[in-house]
Predict the structure of TetR family transcriptional regulator.
Amino acid sequence: MARNKHPEQTLEKIVETAAQLFVEKGYEQTSIQDILDVSGLSKGGLYHHFKSKEQIFGAVMEKRILYVNNLFHELIRDTQGENAREKLKKILYRLAIDTKTHSLDQAVASHVEPYLIVGGMQGCVLHDAPIIAELIQKGNEDGSLQVDQPELCAEIFSFLLNYWTNPVIFSRKPAETKARLDYLQTMMKKLGLDILDDALIAVLLKTMHANSCLDQSQQKRPS
């Protein structure tokens, strides 16, 4: 049948449509029928690829994780700075202001998948932290940073910034998140990794607060 000619395009259409609806309506308020209506696909076309809305959500989140990982590596490659410390600060700021990176935060808030969280943690420690550690080592060499154990420090920083301070995972209010970002800033300064400044914290909080407000408005909508 025609819909089976290009299964990869059908798969992509489902994921893109679902991502759009999860952002606009929230996960709980989005139904399979909504996805079918917007995508124009048949039930057979959708269920050929996914058995449930949860599976679709998993595919949406995996695509988002891939996007963030690719962006991170591009920024590592392309960002310029007068020293390694300034380069790291610029990379963190770019990630914080990237709207696509945070577009699904409000959908995640209402539907946290443990396996995605664990997978993200593993990627953070096993893949992202070693790259950050290399930049920290360069900072030690150029004198802009003074970190005793770059590898361990990079793991701690990546893990705490992406998960411990994440209000989506713990359903925290902005004030609670700020307290943790402030504490992380103090901790990293003591470890010689002074890259989390007040301006970056303000940007992170603004993004988190905007997503939190949107999530609350979605929850008030009738099903």
Notes: The first helix runs from residue 7 to 25. The chain has two domains: 1-51, 53-209. The chain has a mean pLDDT of 86.
